[in-house]
Amino acid sequence: MKREFVLVLFFLLLFPVERARAYVDPGTGSYLVQVLIGLIFGAGYALKVFWGRIIHFFKRNSKKRESKQEK
To answer: What is the pTM of this model?
Structure first.
């Protein structure tokens, strides 16, 4: 995994990118922070909603493994 990361990084640095001729206004940073906070809260809410199903899924799989090992 680390080797592939280094290889990709090497190739990205090998081909320099031309400077972008664009303007980024100050509100863009605050918008990106809002999106990040929204993603974090959304993932937390989804985890809260589906927590019971996640636990049930892993408990069910562990019970199947235990019954197979007893045989």
So the answer is: 0.50
